[in-house]
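Sample intake sheet
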Amino acid sequence: MRHFVFFRFVLIFLGVCLGFSALQAQQKRVLHQTFDVTDIEEIHLEIYGEVELVPWSGSKIMSETTVELAGAPKHVLEFFIEEKKRYDIEEILGADFYVLQSVEKEHREISYKGVVCEEKVRVRLFIPEDFEILEGGKVLRRK
């Protein structure tokens, strides 16, 4: 009888642990976009999240956005990617310059079933080598 009670306790404990770990699963997606900057001389960057600028030999700017969302199921992250376009970068052509900016400039907390989810957004922008990367989110074509 004691063994049965102990075995039952262990099964319940493992079930609770597995249920908790499933709820705390971390979702991750990597998104890519490209931007044609053939005739562009000056670019202003207004990107949400942790941003890394990487020179590369391509002729276009490529963005690689890594999104991690802990504490929510996959469909929650998919909703914010597909429906809300939360992590998209848009291009705006100004009179004298070109702007790459996050569609959502501020991210409100994401909650799932009353629990705040931890969100990490990292953006790597691959900048063509014929541009010079300056301070303050500015990129200029080399002369």
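Comment: Residues 2-23 form the longest helix (22 residues). The chain has a mean pLDDT of 89.
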